[in-house]
Design brief:
The protein is α/β, with parallel strands linked by helices. It is built from 9 helices and 11 strands. The strands form 3 sheets. A 7-stranded parallel sheet has the order 3-2-1-4-5-6-9, with helices on both faces. Strand 1, helix 1 (15-26) and strand 2 form a beta-alpha-beta unit. Helix 1 crosses helix 6 (195-208), helix 3 runs parallel beside helix 4 and helix 5 crosses helix 7. The longest helix has 21 residues, at 82-102. It is globular and about 60 Å long. It starts with 5 loop residues before the first strand and ends with a helix. The model has no long low-confidence stretch (mean pLDDT 95). The structure holds NADP nicotinamide-adenine-dinucleotide phosphate. NADP nicotinamide-adenine-dinucleotide phosphate (NAP) binds at residues 11, 13-17, 36-37, 48-51, 69-73, 88, 110, 112, 158, 160-161.
């Protein structure tokens, strides 16, 4: 249990934000959240829509730490609409971080392995960013501008988050359950982690009070076909039902589909005793969970 530091999770409804909110609460922090939703589950969160001008944002609570989990993560959306997406991915987080650091709050900004060009594995913390997508460019610029602010700032880069709500795995599960084959890329890789693991690394960073760049990554780049194999195994269906595909994922600019996505975690290993988790085990456990949960609900 940590001393009751207060944490504001900005974007507490997202894939990472909602898990981090619960996980940090469970670890003993005093946790608050923000949402851009006006009704339903998110009623007790502070309303914050980053597409509004900063002058329309609410007063932010004087917390010890703020974790910025908001983003437009769709590669295609950032390619198609760079100006609008840059508001949420670049301009708003920088303005938010300025406001927060000015009031003495430590800012932890979530970023992505997509600040690199996917041509080499195990990117180091101090490798210069070399993004190949608008999403990666927006995040790389936001990282740099937040890190140069006065006050305590941290960038935590993540690799692909997978979990039971992953749309691709759920689509494959439905296709397999209805007797169809599934298609998976054999030349595009991920080094997946869970949102719970990302939250654990946040907890370690917050506990240490250290600034700078941190990574949370799986230990290996594995193709999407390996993820498909884990689901096939979990559902006990014929392995021949995977159709391997090669080529460029359509949402990425030509020739830029990820070949290598791993991030070096030696700093986190040395500082926190947290090594990179097994990419294969993360895939296997997630696939098993999806197969089990969908079997239970009859999907
Ligand atoms: N998921 C991954 O595989 C992955 C990998 C690497 C890095 N990351 C990074 O991790 C962070 C969290 O990603 P995620 O997967 O949790 O993304 P997500 O599930 O898409 O969640 C994004 C969050 O941002 C909120 N948001 C979007 N536009 C907003 C706006 N105009 N004003 C206020 N909030 C807004 C969303 O609100 P609504 O829920 O209401 O839409 C949602 O809560 C991001 O910085 C992302 O770049 C994610």
């Amino acid at each position: 249990m940590t001393d009751a530091l207060s944490i504001l999770v900005i974007g507490a409804d997202g894939q990472v934000g909602r898990v981090a909110y619960q996980d940090l609460l469970r670890r003993g922090y005093e946790v608050f959240g923000t949402t851009r939703r006006t009704e339903g589950e998110a009623k007790d969160c502070l309303f914050l829509d980053l597409s509004l001008a900063p002058s329309e944002w609410p007063e932010l609570p004087p917390v010890d730490v703020a974790v910025i989990c908001t983003a437009v993560t769709s590669i295609a959306e950032c390619e198609n609409d760079p100006d609008v997406t840059a508001v949420v991915n670049l301009h708003a987080p920088v303005a938010l971080a300025e406001k927060l650091t000015r009031q003495g709050t430590m800012v932890l900004f979530l970023s992505t392995t997509g600040v690199f060009d996917f041509t080499r594995p195990f990117r180091h913390h101090d490798d210069p960013p070399c993004p190949v997508t608008n999403y990666g460019r927006q995040k790389a610029e936001a990282e740099a501008r937040i890190l140069e602010l006065e006050g305590k700032t941290v960038v935590l880069r993540l690799t692909k988050i997978i979990g039971p709500d992953m749309p691709l795995l759920n689509r494959w599960q439905t296709e397999l359950a209805s007797g169809q084959n599934i298609t998976a890329y054999q030349d595009t890789t991920i080094a997946p982690i869970t949102a719970v693991f990302a939250s654990r690394v946040m907890h370690e960073i917050i506990g240490s009070g250290t600034e700078g760049i941190f990574h949370a990554s799986g230990d290996d780049d594995l193709p999407y076909t390996v993820l498909a194999e884990q689901l096939i195994r979990a559902m006990a269906v014929d392995p021949e039902r995977i159709e391997a595909r090669t080529g460029n994922m359509k949402e990425y600019p030509s020739g830029s589909s990820p070949r290598f996505t791993t991030l070096d975690m030696s700093r986190e290993g040395e500082m926190f005793g947290v090594p990179a988790p097994s990419s294969l085990a993360t895939m296997r456990e997630t696939a098993t969970r999806i197969a089990r949960e969908n079997l239970a609900t009859g999907v």
